[in-house]
Design goal:
It is a single chain. By secondary structure, the chain is α+β, with helices and mostly antiparallel strands. Helix content is 48%, strand content 13%. Strand 3 and strand 4 form a beta hairpin. Helix 1 packs antiparallel against helix 4 and helix 5 packs across helix 6. It is globular. Pfam families: MDMPI_C, MDMPI_N.
């Protein structure tokens, strides 16, 4: 897909790749398979696809459904989750053909919108996750991230691994890395004048150092540290699943290698989830 603004091209391509993969994954599903649980807390396959459809409809500017949520949705723990759940719950009784046809129609509409987009990337638009405003570029980036993560949810559910190094994976990498300074410096409380190294291997490889300055502020760069307080080594799939709240550290501890301050490392990994 070619879009007007080069700043949007990377994210549009990543979004298109992942959402088409989602469509291919769910097209052959029989009715009962739509109810299977996914790694996304509280959501079935139908719920994940409903969320994807709903967020793309919000990007299209469609009116939000008028819908009252039931009181027994125990995975709803915040106003943001409640806002997002409306697009999910309103589709919970839709049939498999209704789901796939709405997904396909939504993809067609969004592809057309992206191809014909003439607004500047820094134009402020309403976020699909609520009333706050964000730039068109950020919104497009976040949609690319979101659909890649949910593609992986579905792949995990149906044991169909793939696309761990797709364009969406690199969008996800950069977004998740941008959250690491806060995780290390604020959430885990790494001491001033310390460094924490993340050594990630697999389909997406990188080495990053989070440095905490005298004021306790964290920054991240790609320069190795000569004397890190701790080094955390893990594979890319485990990294993104921890960062996206799909698993907890205790369940994947055997996949993580820690060198240095083990107590700090465990605190970092306990606070690793950065998605809502």
């Amino acid at each position: 897909m070619t879009v007007h603004h080069p700043a949007l091209q990377t994210y549009a391509d990543a979004w298109s790749h992942s959402i088409e993969a989602i469509s291919e994954l769910v097209q052959p599903l029989v009715e009962g398979e739509w109810n299977r649980r996914t790694p996304c807390p509280g959501w079935s396959v139908r719920d994940v696809v409903s969320h994807v459809i709903g967020m793309e409809c919000e990007m299209l500017g469609d009116p939000r459904p008028i819908h009252t949520l039931p009181s027994d949705l125990f995975h709803i723990t915040s106003d943001l989750a409640r806002y997002v759940e409306v697009q999910v719950d309103v589709r919970r009784h839709h049939t498999a053909p209704e789901m796939t046809s709405e997904l396909e129609y939504t993809i067609i509409r969004r592809n057309r919108q992206l191809r014909n987009e003439t607004r500047s990337p820094d134009t402020l638009i309403r976020s699909p996750l609520g009333g706050q405003q964000q730039s068109l570029e950020l919104a497009t980036r976040l949609r690319a991230f979101d659909v890649w993560v949910h593609e992986q949810d579905l792949r995990t559910t149906f044991h169909q691994p793939g696309d761990l190094d797709s364009p969406g994976a690199y969008v996800a990498r950069d977004l998740l890395l941008s959250s690491l300074p806060k995780v290390v410096a604020k959430d885990a409380g790494a001491p001033p004048n310390s460094a924490v190294v993340f050594d990630v291997h697999g389909p997406v490889e990188f080495l990053r150092t989070v440095r905490v300055d005298e004021q306790g502020t964290g920054t991240i760069d790609g320069t190795p540290s000569l004397g890190p307080l701790v080094t955390i080594a893990l594979d890319w799939e485990t990294f993104y699943r921890l960062a996206c709240g799909r698993v907890r550290y205790g369940s994947v501890a055997d996949l993580v290698k820690i060198e240095g301050d083990e107590e700090l490392a465990r605190e970092i990994l306990r606070n690793f989830a950065v998605t809502p």
